[in-house]
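Hi W., the nicotinamide-adenine-dinucleotide complex you wanted:
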Amino acid sequence: MASYKLLLLPGDGIGPEVMGEVTRLIDWVNTSGLATIETETDLVGGCAYDAHGESVSDATMKIALEADAVMLGAVGGPKWDGVPYDKRPEAGLLRLRKDLELFANLRPAICYPALADASSLKRELVDGLDIMIVRELTGGVYFGEPKEITDLGNGQKRAVDTQVYETYEIVRIAAVAFELARKRGNLVHSAEKRNVMKTGVLWNEVVTQVHKDRYSDVKLEHILADNCAMQLVRAPKQFDVIVTDNLFGDVLSDEAAMATGSLGMLPSASLGAEDERGRRKALYEPVHGSAPDIAGKGAANPIATIASFAMALRYSFDLGEAADRIEKAIADVLDQGLRTGDIKQDGCKTVGTREMGDAIIASLKSAT
Ligand code: NAD
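Structure:
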C-alpha cells in the first residue's frame, strides 16, 4: 500500500477547527486501506510567532520540504496586527509558497446544485458549474523589477510595477493546464491581453507552441482577459480550464469563485515543478482566512478545507477515486439540507463544524 507524508499546519482562528475535520477524513483513508497517510502537525502564522517569534520556523520549513504535501488551515487575526511586517502571520504562508516554489495555483469554482440559489448569478447559469482556474503564482507584475515609488520632487510621485514573463514560466504553467484539461473536459482557455501587452503576445505565442508540440489532443481557445471576465458572468459553463498570469488569475479566480456562493466552500491547491519521481511539491488550503469573528464557536464551514484535502488526494496521493467520493459526500450532505451559518438557507438545518464533518463522514461510510 502506498504511504505518504502529509504536514498539517492548522494555523490561527478557525484553522484548527476546520483542520480537525480533515484529520477524521485522514483516519477514514487509513482505515479504509486506500493508502497510509502519515501526518505531522506544526505551527504557522500567529501561533508560530507566539511560540518562536517567526511566522514559520526553519524547522517547520524543513518538514514541509520533505513532506509529500502540506495542508494549511488559515493564518492571521487582530491579535497580531502590531507585529513587525516581516514576521506577520501571512509572511509564514508566503515563505511556504516561495520556498516550495509553488508556481501553479489551482482554484476550482464548483457550484453544487443544492447551493445554486446562493450565487449572485441565475440558477441556470451556475447549476452544475465546474471550472478550474490555473493561475501563474510566482512571476508577473507582483514580482517584476523595477517595483518602486519615486518622489519626483515637484509634488508628484511616480509608481512603477513591472510585468515580466520568461518562456519557461509560461511553458510550465501551460503544461499544468493542459494536463488537467485532459482529466476533465479537455478544453483550455488561455487568457491574456496580447492586444496591449508584450507579455500577452509572448504568453499567446508560447501557449500556442506548447499546445502544438505536446497537447494537440486538447482543445485550446485564446481569449482576452477582459472578455474572459465578462464571459465568466455571462455564461460561465462554457469554460473548463482557464490558464492565465498572476494578476489576471488573482482577479478572475475571485470572480469565478463568487459564482459558486460562499467563501466557506472554496478549496485551492498550489503546485511546484515535477521532481525526478514525477511528484510535485504541493500546498492545499481553503481560500478563506481565519474568520476571527466566528473562531472558537464551532460554527465554521469545514467544506473548503475538506475539499482541499480531496484535491491533495487527487493531485499528490494518486487517490482520485477517494477524492471523487469525498466530493460526492459533500454534495450529498448539501442535498440532505445541512448548512453551516455561512450558507444557511430557509428550510435547511443549520449545523456547526463538527456536525457537518460527521455528516460527510457518515455519507462516505454509507457509500462504502
Ligand atoms: P476571512 O476569510 O477570514 O472572513 C471573511 C468572512 O467570511 C467572515 O465574516 C468570516 O466569518 C466568513 N468566513 C470565512 N471562512 C468561513 C468559513 N469557513 N465558515 C464560515 N464563515 C467563514 O477574511 P477576513 O475577515 O478578511 O480576514 C480575517 C483574517 O484572516 C485576517 O487576519 C486576514 O489577514 C487573514 N486571511 C488569511 C488568509 C489565509 O490564511 N490564506 C486568507 C485571507 C485572510
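The two ends are 19 Å apart (CA to CA).

W.
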